[in-house]
Amino acid sequence: MLEWKTDLIKNKWLYLLFVPTLVWYLLFAYWPMFGLVIAFEKLNVVKGVFGSQWVGFKNFQEIFSDPYFAQILKNTFLLNLYSLLFGFPVPILLALCFNEIRSVLFKKVAQTISYLPYFISSVIVCGLAITFLSPSTGVVNAFLGMLGFESIYFLQDPKYFRTIYVVIGIWQGAGFSAIIYFAALSGISPELYEAAKIDGANRWKQLRYITFPSLVPTILIMLILSLGNMLNADFEKILLLYNPTTYETADVLNTYVYRQGLLNSNYSYATAIGLFQGFVGFVLVFGANWLSKKANGTSLW
Question: Percentages helix, strand, coil for the chain, rounded to the nearest 5?
């Protein structure tokens, strides 16, 4: 207790800077968790949370007995799986490429261009995608027409939606995510490379035996965090791109919760789905963290 008081007095300004963040999390992250009780009720808006009928796990039984739930669960998982398989390595490769550039000016310009899409609104990004993929005026179909192919209705055909979603996600987020890996690369001691050069290691061997192993802890941490979002697709992007003709592959848990909760006013059912998402995410993060700690010694806690 005495040590805690001493630390508080010694670092009082740091703790003071932390107060706004703590208040934000308490108000907007932890206090709203009280609303999860709605998942076990049949919410009556007039009676409120305390006056509504308690139904226990009935909402969850309805979720798992709904034949459409399996489809949206599959869509959510596959969209995140493809994003992880194809999108996760891109920032790493991008950071490694930046690290090999010797011209400081060119490196800064390339980095700036790569992470600028991250700051573009999803509305604009999806608008660009819709314009480029338009069957009549889109650049992609114009190019296909030059090659002799017929126009393709990309955003009306379910089989193209997952590819479009993953490609847009990579383009928008790869450059910004690469900053984390590039920061990790900047922390590698130059003496390791000098010693490797003396021992006759070429650029490939330096990359293989020094650069990449130094990135492994950061890669594992980012992978663990990514696994926690395996059932949490980019709601805004999907909402802007999908339509009833692409529900077969585009409808995910987030959009289903939106329709059930806000459009159909089925708040208890939507909350139960959200709680299920959070529980699965927790299990995935906890399991991935445990495996990483056992295998490599790297973990979040």
Answer: 80, 0, 20
Q: How far apart are CA 284 and CA 46, in angstroms?
A: 37
Task: Report the C-alpha gap between 258 and 240 in whole angstroms.
Answer: 13
Taking residue 8's Cβ as centre, other Cβ atoms within 10 Å add up to: 11
Residue with tokens 């987020």: 173
CB 167, CB 177: distance < 8 Å: no
Q: Which two tokens stand for residue 144?
A: 């296909």
CA atoms within 13 A on the CB side of 138: 19
Q: Which top CATH class is 65-295?
A: mainly alpha
Rama region for 56: left / alpha / beta (φ>0; ψ in -120 to 50; rest): left
Is 234:122 a contact under the CB 8 Å cutoff?
yes
CB 203 within 8 A of CB 100: yes
**Nearest-angstrom CA–CA distance, 117 and 172:** 5
Show me where the domains of the chain are located.
Answer: 65-295
Dihedral angle at the C-alpha atoms of 248, 250, 256, 262, nearest 10 degrees?
-120
User: Look-up: residue for tokens 């959009």?
Assistant: 255
Alpha-carbon dihedral sign for residues 38, 28, 241, 75:
negative
Q: Rg of the Cα trace of the chain?
A: 24
What is the tens place of the pLDDT at every residue in 199-249? 888 888 888 888 888 888 889 888 888 888 888 888 899 999 998 899 999
pLDDT tens across 143-186, in order?
988 888 888 899 999 999 999 999 999 999 999 999 999 888 88
In angstroms, the CA 220 to CA 125 distance is 29
Distance CA 297, CA 289 (A): 10
Cβ-in-10-Å burial (0-12, 13-18, 19+) of 23 comes to: exposed
